[in-house]
Amino acid sequence: MNVENKILKAEKLLEENKQDSVLRILRKLDSEKKEKLAEQILQLDFEQLRKLYKETQETPEILEKKLEHINYVDKYKISDEKRNTYLNLGEEIIKNGKYAVVTMAGGQGTRLGHKGPKGTFKIDVEPEPKYLFQILAENLEKANKKYGITIPWYIMTSTENDKETEEFYKAHNYFGYPQEAVKFFTQGNLPLLFTNGSLVIDKDYSIKIAADGNGCIYKSMKKAGILDDMKQKGVQWIFIGAVDNVLLNMVDPMLIGLAIDEKHEIAAKSVPKNYPKERVGVFCKANGVPSVIEYSELPEDMAEQTDEDGELLYGEAHIMCNLYTLDALEKIAKIDLPYHVANKKTDYMNEDGEFIEVKEPNAYKFEAFIFDAFNYFDDMSILRGRREEDFAPVKNAEGNDSPETAKKLYNDFHAKNN
User: Fold this and answer.
1) What whole-number distance in Å separates Cα of residue 65 and Cα of residue 48?
2) CB neighbours (10 Å) of residue 131?
3) CATH 3.90.550.10 at 62-417, yes or no
4) pLDDT tens digits, residue range 339-356?
5) Measured on CA atoms in the order 296, 302, 303, 304, is the torsion positive or negative?
6) For residue 63, what pLDDT is reported?
7) Rounded distance, CA 374 to CA 99, Å?
8) 3-class SS at 235?
9) CB atoms < 10 A from the CB of 95, how many?
10) Spatial CB neighbours of 40, under 8 Å, sequence gap ≥ 6
11) To the nearest 10°, the Cα dihedral for 336, 103, 266, 68?
């Protein structure tokens, strides 16, 4: 298709979809910018965007959710016999090359005051400061040495940070991890929409897009050929974790063994909530299937409920430590998970060529959540760990879940276990 036809087709699409403001901007651009914007417009799924926008205008249907406690296994309260069973089952999978790990690393370090991909943030741990990516690489390398194998490592980046992430790995010689065992792939994007349904134009006259949430990892893995690559390698179990947990244990045979023993296709690690109203999503059964319910959705009386041992009935926090069979990932990759809408403030280019910086939310961002996939399984295994051994996230510049709190947890753990 020649340039002129591209532009005409893009204009027609904008007209048909009532994107008048974008159409007026497009018509004012010089030929080079016009062609780039037209190409972007031709790639948009306007039907999907119409549907997403329509949902923002409707009052969400309040579905009655029957919430129930979900069973879990406490890693520290099981018999030696059970522990050995889980360990043996899990270690067999790892040693026989049937295990792979995926790191979600699409985010930027903005909230930490860090410019660049979040994984390139350096945390001041002992005996020397380390990058988040480096901590993960060292943990994986330790498992490789223990089991005499090389675990395939897949890293999900975003359009925003993909190039920078790959260059960072090359510049640091992959932190000693075998380069051939590392594969990068990008997560998907969706355009932002103004609250009136119009597309947002960025300062470079492109359509403003944002990553479409961690729940889109499943489709991204399929689209990028990652699931096929795993199948070719004989991988059967896959761990998916986040880049920002400095205590993330990506290779835990106990978790694998528990899932195999309980004959479940998916599993996850949890840590107990610190107190009933802690602002974390918790595992439960919703309408009979495994689920994670946000703290804001859990009724107050249920948040306080305890069992006969005084443990919270809804006390298992989801910490982004999830395990799947390859079959489970292939199944989820075919499912359209629901999108959740967030009100965001976004700067934009107006029709007069002025870049407007805003102070109030003015646009919708659409994201899918990774745990919404759990609903498509009858049950799952949950292994309860401990924060001081499993969960030290780096989310905020200061206060809770900050570099300071993560550093302390990391240093304490390694002082105790080395």
Assistant:
1) 27
2) 17
3) yes
4) 999 999 999 999 999 999
5) positive
6) 58
7) 20
8) coil
9) 14
10) 206, 207
11) -80
For the stretch 193-248, pLDDT in tens is 999 999 999 999 999 999 899 999 999 999 999 999 999 999 999 999 999 999 99
Tell me the two tokens of residue 286: 């919703």
Single-letter residue type at 65: K
d(Cα 290, Cα 372) in Å, to the nearest integer? 9
Structure confidence at residue 346 (pLDDT): 94
The ranges assigned to domains in the chain are 1-43, 62-417
Separation between Cα atoms, residue 360 and residue 239, nearest integer Å: 38
Is 0.70 topped by the overall pTM?
A: yes
| 418 contacts: CB under 8 Å, gap ≥ 6 | none
How many other CB atoms sit within 10 Å of the CB of residue 271?
Answer: 20
What does the DSSP assignment read for 235-296? --EEEEEETTBTT--S--HHHHHHHHHTT-SEEEEEEE-SSTT-S--EEEEETTEEEEE-GG
User: Where does the pLDDT of residue 308 fall: very low under 50, low under 70, confident under 90, or very high at 90 and above?
Assistant: confident
CA distance 142 to 181: 15
324's tokens: 């799947």
